[in-house]
Write a structure and sequence with these properties.
52 residues; mainly alpha; elongated
Length: 52
């Protein structure tokens, strides 16, 4: 596991946690959507960079 893939996965999980928190607070759907998309892209990039 390289440092960049670890960082991307961590950022993706952080954004996912933010999206869940904003959803529970009743924030606008656009903000939740942007955080969800950013989280998914970051997690996907981190997983694809893993050296298996």
């Amino acid at each position: 596991m390289t440092g960049l893939s670890t960082l991307l996965i961590f950022v993706g999980l952080f954004l996912l946690g933010g999206a869940v928190s904003f959803w529970k607070q009743g924030q606008p759907k656009a903000v939740i959507t942007v955080l969800g998309i950013g989280s998914a892209l970051s997690l996907l990039a981190g997983v694809l960079r893993l050296e298996v």
